[in-house]
């Protein structure tokens, strides 16, 4: 079966002839903005952690659909669940006609989500950006306030509001004006904290950066919510330190501000917990609202927003919901994904994969000057490349070369970080031990070849 195979490139190079022909058609039919930075891969089929392209090349996927494929490609039970639902009906708009799948999925998320409150409520949207935007709608409705605080390095989407929340402005080039009332504080990027600071001093430094906003930008009494990724994704796979989270939680409590956890990418077992906010809850700092998407539907578009009942019930009728939100096919897929992930302990799988990956990447850190930092939570891990360990100067050229070399060997990698100098590890959690070890071997081979190429 494809899901048990190892990467193999059978063409002279990637892309092969069939992929080249298809990519040419793509370039003629699609906007340039969707074509310029994509990988020269055209999928034919995928199973588990392996993708086969139209030329028969087999790739090991360390990208996982940028966090969508925690359960892997084409899990048979999920495929069957969607087929079964499709035979009944494809669509009904939940604002008009209720369906059982939506209600059951919401009920299970109410029990699962680690946000504050005994009684919780959940509703669904289609994407991560929609989930974040709806979470902010909910926060504004409940608090009656209009300002939002987000962070450096943040990525929250590509709608008008979430482009404003997203830090890296290449995602928003020429798209303004953006909504007002959005303020940005510095995220606790401990690897790049002021030189000489201890971790405790660095956390205090970042807390002060946040509270300074109340004096210089937005009075606390105007702030509806603080929006945080428990592990920054596009920002470079940076976990939010628990002591900092506890400080932010106290700031929110002292000022009547809601704390929103954006678990679009880090949720659904990726972090070693079902949701990374469980780590916050264990520390007494549970968020008020959680948004999630990506791996929730196993590849079918769906996202969720959960909060305690009193917060959710403050939302005026007509301001949330949408035509495709909580689509029956997506709910059927998400219910089956949830069932499998709980039954097979995907959070435990993430912890085991994470231990092996951290060990492998840390060995590379000891060996190669260019590997500056290795960090993460569970199986969401970033490896940051620098020109020298001492100087910590970002080395995006090395990462770009590394990705291209690995691609020709059958390993799919993706960058992250404000400077594009971080490789993100998001392999499907069903990856086999043999595939994982082969991926590490290709990764290290590619580092060596990138060193030679850039001498």
Structural notes for this entry:
It is built from 14 helices and 17 strands. Helix 4 packs parallel to helix 11. The chain has 455 residues and is an alpha/beta fold. 39% of the residues lie in helices and 17% in strands. Strands 4-12-11-10-7-5-6 form a seven-stranded mixed beta sheet, with helices on both faces. Strands 1-2-3-15 form a four-stranded mixed beta sheet.
Key attributes of the depicted protein:
455 residues; alpha/beta; 7-stranded mixed β-sheet; 4-stranded mixed β-sheet; 14 helices; 17 strands
Q: For the terminal residues, how far apart are their CA atoms?
A: 41 Å
How many beta-strand elements? 17
Low-confidence stretches: none
Please state the average pLDDT score.
Answer: 97
Helical content band: 25-40%
Q: How would you characterize the largest beta sheet?
A: 7 strands, mixed
Oligomer: single chain
Strand order of the largest sheet: 4-12-11-10-7-5-6
The value of Rg in angstroms is 22 Å
Dominant shape: globular
Percentage of residues in DSSP E strands: 15-25%
Number of helices: 14
What structural class do helix, strand and pairing data support? alpha/beta
């Amino acid at each position: 079966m494809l899901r048990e195979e190892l990467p193999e490139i059978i063409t002279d190079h990637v892309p092969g002839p069939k992929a080249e022909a298809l990519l040419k058609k793509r370039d003629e039919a699609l906007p340039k903005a969707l074509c310029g930075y994509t990988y020269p891969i055209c999928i034919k089929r995928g199973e588990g952690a392996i993708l086969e392209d139209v030329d028969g090349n087999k790739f090991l996927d360390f990208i996982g659909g940028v966090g969508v494929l925690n359960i892997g490609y084409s899990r048979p039970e999920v495929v069957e669940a969607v087929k079964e639902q499709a035979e009944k009906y494809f669509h009904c708009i939940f604002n008009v006609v209720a369906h059982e799948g939506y209600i059951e999925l919401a009920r299970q998320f109410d029990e699962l989500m680690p946000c504050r409150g005994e009684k919780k409520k959940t509703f669904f949207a289609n994407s991560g950006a929609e989930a974040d935007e709806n979470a902010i709608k909910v926060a504004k409705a409940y608090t009656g306030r209009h300002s939002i605080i987000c962070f450096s390095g943040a990525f929250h989407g590509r709608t008008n509001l979430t482009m404003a929340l997203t830090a890296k402005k290449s995602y928003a080039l020429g798209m303004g004006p953006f909504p007002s009332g959005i303020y940005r504080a510095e995220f606790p990027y401990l690897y790049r904290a002021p030189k000489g600071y201890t971790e405790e001093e660095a956390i205090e430094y970042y807390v002060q950066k946040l509270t300074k906003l109340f004096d210089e930008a937005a009075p606390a009494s105007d702030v509806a919510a603080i929006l945080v990724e428990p592990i920054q994704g596009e920002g470079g796979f940076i976990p939010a330190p628990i002591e900092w989270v506890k400080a932010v939680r106290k700031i929110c409590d002292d000022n009547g501000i809601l704390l929103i956890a954006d678990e679009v990418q880090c949720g659904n077992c990726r972090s070693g917990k079902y949701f990374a906010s469980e780590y916050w809850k264990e520390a007494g700092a549970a968020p008020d609202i959680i948004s999630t998407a990506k791996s929730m539907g196993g590849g079918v578009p769906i996202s969720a927003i959960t909060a305690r009942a009193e917060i959710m019930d403050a939302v005026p009728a007509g301001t949330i919901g949408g035509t495709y939100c909580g689509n029956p096919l997506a709910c059927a897929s998400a219910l089956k994904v949830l069932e499998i992930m709980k039954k097979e302990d995907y959070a435990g799988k993430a912890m085991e994969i994470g231990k092996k990956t951290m060990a492998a990447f840390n060995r590379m850190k000891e060996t190669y000057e260019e590997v500056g930092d290795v960090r993460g939570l569970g199986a969401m891990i970033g490896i940051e490349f620098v020109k020298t360990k001492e100087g910590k100067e970002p080395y995006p050229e090395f990462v770009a070369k590394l990705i291209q070399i690995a691609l020709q060997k059958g390993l799919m990698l993706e960058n992250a970080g404000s400077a594009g100098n971080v490789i993100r590890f998001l392999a499907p959690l069903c990856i086999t031990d043999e595939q994982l070890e082969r991926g590490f071997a290709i990764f290290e081979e590619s580092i060596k070849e990138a060193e030679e190429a850039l001498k």
